[in-house]
From TrEMBL:
This is Oxidoreductase C terminal-domain-containing protein. Residues 3-153 form the Gfo/Idh/MocA-like oxidoreductase N-terminal domain. Signal peptide: none annotated. Residues 156-297 form the Oxidoreductase putative C-terminal domain. The lineage of its organism: Eukaryota, Fungi, Dikarya, Basidiomycota, Agaricomycotina. Transmembrane segments: none annotated.
Amino acid sequence: MTFNVLLVGAGEINFGSVEGPWNHSRRLESKLGKSLRVVGLVDPDQSRAAAALEGKLASEVAPAYVSCRAFSTVSEAAAALSDDLLPQLAVVGAPPFARGSDLSGKDLELQLTSAFPGCALFVEKPVSSGPVDGCWRVAAELDKRRTLVGVGYMLRYSKAVQMMKQIIKENNLVVMGTNARYVMAYEWARKLSWWNKDSSGGPIVEQATHFCDLSRYFGGDVVLPSVSAHIVSHDEAPGALSAKRFDETAIPPEKRLPRLTSATWKYAGGAVGALTHVIALHGATYDTEFEVYADGYRLKLIDPYGSTPVLSVRRPGVAGEEMHTFPDDDPFYSELSTIIDAIREPNSGARSSILSSYEDAVKTYELTWQIRRAGEK
Ligand SMILES: NC(=O)c1ccc[n+]([C@@H]2O[C@H](COP(=O)([O-])OP(=O)(O)OC[C@H]3O[C@@H](n4cnc5c(N)ncnc54)[C@H](O)[C@@H]3O)[C@@H](O)[C@H]2O)c1
């Protein structure tokens, strides 16, 4: 049985990058093997789409791409794909400015579900770069259309994160606090658009979003007005960066990124959350840690993005730390595998195994904007 996929976006998230492990097409190929049939690739940058397809057709996975056509828009794809070429899953790896709204040109999800009503969506994070109310309208519409959606907060699917959840469940713990620390190595981050908060959304909305999402995964809903934040801005003495490999003067001063953001908030359940995001390290290795506290327990997840994340557990009655390592985990594979299983077995309860729903991801987006605004105030 073939499984039809429509890829939206011919960029790094769908086709890979030297910068990180993300590469959705590769995970689709390993999950679906011979059943994978990529029916289309939508990207307004047709030369990029052609290059991406050429690469696949020249490789051993060519059979999955032989019937794939490149389209500039979703409506072109809709006109060409019917019957046995209808997609079952659209993997939406376009930039956030094209998504998360009901405004024309920023409404990829709604375009896709109108064109292909039975098609499930796997949408990248953050859900948008526009106003949050637009995202809520999209969420309501997707719910009304009963579209199956998963969002790319892959860390939720990591084995280490699931072990943390398991420990909390087994011991009936009530989370008291979360503490996320994300120290970025900036030397090789040279995309000018990333350093401009107008185009990228800034370090919290674009990058720390994964940690804000993990915080909510453990702490629950955030009381948004409780968010407070301080920043070190680019023009303050501690914010001077000596290893930039691009010309920041090309970005208007008011659009440059804060170097450090320190935020705290209250969760609706009473716990407290904290986040520190820093653009400080040289070289290419980030330093990231995420902690959860509860009576008797401290769960510390170290380097969740790395090839071997570590979970350190302090528990009652045990001296020292209990260490767990997860060398062969691939949460990018698990998030796609989960939605594919849910599509293939719609009545098996697999739907509820999707760990990041659209509506929930909008709440994370909302939190990241609240932190950004609180810091800018
Ligand atoms: N989960 C992760 O760790 C992770 C990693 C990388 C990227 N991402 C996310 O994936 C998304 C894409 O990032 P990227 O690095 O692939 O960007 P990219 O710039 O490399 O590629 C994006 C592609 O989308 C195309 N595009 C623009 N408008 C479009 C539209 N309306 N329809 C279809 N295609 C369109 C662009 O022409 C470009 O080829 C972003 O939201 C990013 O945050 C997530």
